[in-house]
Amino acid sequence: MKRLKIIAAVLATLTAILVVSAAIFYTFERAANPGMSFLDALYWAFITATTIGYGDITPTTIPGRIVAVVAAIAGIAAFTALIGVVADALVDSATRRVLGVSSIRKRGHIVVLGWSPLAPILIREIKANIRDADIVVVDEKVPLTVGDGVQVVRGDPLDREALEKASISQARYIVVAEIDDSRAVLEVLHARRANKQAKIVAMVVDSENVDILRQAGADHVVPVTIAAMLAASFIFEPSVPQVLIDLASSVIGLADVVEEDASQYVGKQFGDVLLEAKRRQNKIPIAVYSAEKGLLVNPPWDYVVSEGDRLISIISGNQ
Question: Is 95 helix (H, G, I), strand (E, B) or coil?
């Protein structure tokens, strides 16, 4: 607001300089330039104040030349002040954005609450699948630069002001990346209160807290202990965790799991879909998400694909 007042004052001063200079110039120079109007004099004042000086109108009297010198000096000072204020505002805005203290105006973006060792991996995977994803990270410990397309709000995820700066009420997805279950529950509660429609994904350390997080408002809860489970599997079935790790990441591995609309298979049995997808597109359907029945992993052969179903398939990493 203070800068706006300064800009308004500079613009008012500049306008006054132009009008007064034009009036004085018109008074003393119209005799030497019979066809000159006040609009011409105002045009001359502007050209002189900005030091452009086309030379199509020139003063011939002593008072006119004095006005020209004063207008040029005053114009340079006024324009310099105006440019300085505007540049300072732009630099300040950019600095505040980099430091994570400015408000971010977005809609349909992804908000990540908390900065843990899991957060960079989370962001990397999102970016690998959605290159133009808008991501906003809210935390007091988050680095100033996280990556392209990732903006930072420095503040406590439990602070209402920090959440408002991240435009959490307009977010499409909210991910709680804490490895402290007590904070995760509180952050889910705050996020759900701020946004009733967003899908909230939360990470949990203790499996006993899964239901608590869901009751708090999380749509999906992911146990971080899955890493320990996979590590244990390497001892007695080493190929299984290797396949799971390969499928889970879009950045590393030879294969990937994708979800897609199953409308092209509506009315067909899952077994026929399996054969057709493998033969024509070299992908292996492994599950169907039905609005009525939920997630069906390895559906029966005679399951009939319905309108609105989603197909989950394994594809090669280079597809």
Answer: helix
